[in-house]
């Protein structure tokens, strides 16, 4: 079974072809980072316009790389939420038009379920019950997955997502966008014990996350020490590297300790860590060490499938199509779709 996946929920226009639910045939991602960079974050109106221009060539490229004709596609999977409404609608309308023209079935996929499926390509089969942590720019959510397709949210961020905190701190320090990869690189040369930030505390002891207090603490530190943001073309100072390392250390310790607590309670057979922040090697190492302590295997997507892509949408959609699920042409987008 060949499935074409389409993803346009935020600022990546992506298309992919997946065979038999887990074999990646082709994956094309067109990132709009350059368009949004100078605004320090995604501008929704610009994002939809870019998707509109890119969607057709990106789908064509994915099909070309897969070396399959449109008549060989058995179904189409498209992200229907959560995400930016204008962005979602571009992918959805294109996918519906294509499904109608080809006479092929279409299914809608929740973007978060997509991220969970991003691990199917490069890991052994997921054993259930599983515990999935999605850490991205828009989400820091943990789901208990007793069986495929069934999700119970067990932890979420109370305020900012982890990736959002990386992006905001990077902006504060004049480091550019997206902040995650830049902070990770600088942190490698910094001392994580240089600045003592406390771990976020949740007063009611629920296993939730919170990153806005840490962001405020970084901003207060910058103000009080008079640390200057990095100017364009300037090499970041050791003080900036130390701050990056200290910030990242708290983010990772918070993600790992909460995941460890929930994992110890739920005893999953597999741990999944996905989403843009899962690109971070320091996070991968800390999560792997924790999983080893608990004796649970941890699966990460390969790094190019950690950030938004359509392969994960095609994989999640393939399972639905194989189970006979079909959406009508009245399929709609939902910006705050829940899993
Ligand atoms: O999954 P994704 O592409 O989009 C959303 O669904 O949000 O994640 C993007 C987020 C951004 O906030 C970015 O700063 C973060 O993932 N990110 C990282 C790294 N690479 C990307 N965060 C930490 N370390 C990284 N290496
Ligand atoms: Zn995402």
TrEMBL record:
PROSITE patterns: GLYCOPROTEASE (PS01016). Substrate binds at residues 134-138, 167, 180, 184, 280. It is found in: Cytoplasm. Residues 23-314 form the Gcp-like domain. Its main location: cytoplasm. It is an enzyme of class 2 (transferase). Fe cation binds at residues 111, 115, 308. One of its GO terms (biological process) is tRNA threonylcarbamoyladenosine modification. Its cofactor is Fe(2+). Its EC number is 2.3.1.234. Binds 1 Fe(2+) ion per subunit. GO terms for cellular component: cytoplasm. Keywords: Acyltransferase, Cytoplasm, Hydrolase, Iron, Metal-binding, Transferase, tRNA processing. InterPro entries: ATPase_NBD, Gcp-like_dom, KAE1/TsaD, Peptidase_M22_CS, TsaD. It catalyses: L-threonylcarbamoyladenylate + adenosine(37) in tRNA = N(6)-L-threonylcarbamoyladenosine(37) in tRNA + AMP + H(+). One of its GO terms (molecular function) is iron ion binding. Belongs to the KAE1 / TsaD family. Required for the formation of a threonylcarbamoyl group on adenosine at position 37 (t(6)A37) in tRNAs that read codons beginning with adenine. Is involved in the transfer of the threonylcarbamoyl moiety of threonylcarbamoyl-AMP (TC-AMP) to the N6 group of A37, together with TsaE and TsaB. TsaD likely plays a direct catalytic role in this reaction. NCBIfam families: gcp_kae1 (TIGR00329), T6A_TsaD_YgjD (TIGR03723). PANTHER family: TRNA N6-ADENOSINE THREONYLCARBAMOYLTRANSFERASE, TRNA N6-ADENOSINE THREONYLCARBAMOYLTRANSFERASE, MITOCHONDRIAL. This is tRNA N6-adenosine threonylcarbamoyltransferase. The lineage of its organism: Bacteria, Pseudomonadati, Acidobacteriota, Blastocatellia, Blastocatellales. The gene is tsaD.
């Amino acid at each position: 079974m060949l499935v074409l996946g389409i993803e346009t929920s935020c600022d990546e226009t992506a298309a992919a072809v997946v065979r038999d639910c887990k074999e990646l045939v082709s994956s094309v991602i067109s990132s709009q980072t350059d368009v949004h960079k100078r605004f320090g974050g995604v501008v929704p109106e610009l994002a939809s316009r870019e998707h509109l221009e890119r969607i057709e060539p990106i789908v064509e490229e994915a099909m070309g790389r897969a070396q399959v004709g449109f008549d060989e596609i058995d179904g189409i999977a498209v992200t229907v939420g959560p995400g930016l409404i204008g962005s979602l609608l571009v992918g959805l309308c294109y996918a519906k038009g294509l499904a109608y023209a080809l006479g092929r079935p279409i299914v809608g996929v929740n973007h978060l379920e997509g991220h969970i499926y991003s691990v199917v390509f490069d890991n052994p089969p997921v054993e259930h019950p599983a515990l999935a942590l999605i850490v991205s720019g828009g989400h820091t959510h943990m789901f208990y997955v007793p069986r495929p397709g069934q999700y119970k949210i067990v932890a979420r961020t109370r305020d900012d997502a982890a990736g959002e905190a990386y992006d905001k701190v990077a902006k504060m320090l004049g480091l550019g966008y997206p902040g995650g990869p830049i902070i990770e690189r600088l942190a490698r040369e910094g001392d994580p014990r240089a600045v003592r930030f406390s771990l976020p505390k949740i007063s009611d002891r629920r296993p939730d996350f919170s990153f806005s207090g840490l962001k405020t603490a970084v901003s207060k530190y910058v103000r009080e020490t008079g640390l200057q943001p990095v100017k364009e073309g300037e090499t970041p100072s050791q003080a900036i590297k130390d701050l990056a390392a200290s910030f990242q250390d708290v983010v990772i310790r918070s993600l790992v300790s909460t995941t460890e607590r929930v994992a110890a309670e739920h005893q999953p057979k597999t741990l999944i860590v996905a989403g843009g922040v899962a690109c971070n090697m320091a996070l991968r190492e800390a999560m792997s060490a924790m999983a080893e302590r608990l004796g649970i295997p941890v699966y990460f997507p390969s790094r190019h499938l950690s950030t938004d892509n359509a392969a994960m949408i095609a994989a999640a959609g393939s399972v639905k199509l194989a189970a006979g699920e079909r959406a009508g042409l009245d399929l709609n987008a939902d910006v705050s779709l829940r899993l």
